[in-house]
Write a structure and sequence with these properties.
Two copies of one chain form a homodimer. By secondary structure, the first copy, chain A, is an alpha+beta fold. The first copy, chain A, is built from two helices and three strands; from the N terminus they run αβαββ. Helices cover about 40% and strands about 45% of the residues of chain A. In chain A, strand 2 and strand 3 form a beta hairpin.
């Protein structure tokens, strides 16, 4: 994640379920500490997004991670 | 959460465990959609924080929510 933000300026992850969302937030916190050493500050913007999985509609969490 | 940000300009929540962190992120996403209607954009900054619970050291997720 730190690499993607360093190169592209932003990253996006989607998660379904508490475990996946927890992992995603931890990944942001870890990427943030890496990038902070390089003087890059990142923030994340959570929103809900509907995704279709096996023709079933599920609500996922979308995390946009960008330079803050 | 939306109310706290509206009044104080920022909010902070700490969570331990996947379920609590998931709830916290959902709360941010919901607060964000409320505040967006008022023209206020918010972002969140996750980090790790060590907290002592019953004299045991646990690692919590700290979410700082601020105007973006």
């Amino acid at each position: 994640m730190a690499g993607v933000i360093r190169e592209a300026g932003h990253a996006e992850v989607q998660s379904i379920g508490a475990g996946a969302t927890n992992q995603a937030i931890k990944a942001v916190a870890i990427a943030r500490s890496y990038l902070q050493e390089e003087g890059i500050d990142i923030v994340c913007v959570p929103s809900f997004i509907d995704v279709a999985i096996d023709e079933e509609e599920r609500t996922a969490i979308r995390l946009l991670i960008k330079k803050g």
